[in-house]
Amino acid sequence: MFGLPVWAGVLVLVGAILAVEIAIWRLLIIPRLRARMADAAREAEAALGGEVIRSGRASFAGTASRGRARGTGHLAIGPHEVVFVRLSPRSMLRIARARIDSVETTPSHLGGRKRRPLLRIAFRDEAGEPDVVGFHVGRDTRPWEEALAAG
Q1: How far apart are alpha carbons 103 and 101 in whole angstroms?
Q2: Sequence-separated (6 or more) residues with CB below 8 Å from residue 114
Q3: By mean pLDDT, which of 1-10, 21-30, 105-114 is the weakest?
């Protein structure tokens, strides 16, 4: 290629592919993800009627009743309810605060173990059966625990 060694041509080709990949992520994928996250935030906060104590991005770690389904979304705590809207597949989990039995920070959930702490909420479902759900809400779960204790 233009009198250059083969490895130089390969290097140029790999660099061009990486540049296109970065452009696609920056121009198409990241803006769409941000828009979907903003939509999830609006949906979660609307489900609370605009009365939000704490709200933010969270990773869903599953429920005992439904298994270890994972997904990123938006977690919002209101005075009467906790709402999580998952981005994909789009779904909403609602837990009445009156049905919450306990809240704790733990490194493990449903047999999985992580390095970062997990916010774990034990509650009773609509039928009164015990269930548990886990969320990764960042390194410091304390503000989330305090928001849940405040109600």
Answers
A1: 7
A2: 107, 108, 136
A3: 105-114
Is residue 111 over pLDDT 70?
no
In the β-sheet with 71-77, what is the strand arrangement from edge to edge?
A: 91-96, 81-86, 71-77, 54-63, 130-136, 112-124, 100-109
Residue range 40-149 forms a domain whose CATH class is: mainly beta
137's tokens: 């809400």
If pLDDT is split at 50, 70 and 90, which confidence band does 93 have? Answer: very high
* pLDDT tens per residue, range 46-56: 999 988 899 89
Is the Cβ–Cβ distance between 83 and 48 less than 8 Å?
Answer: yes
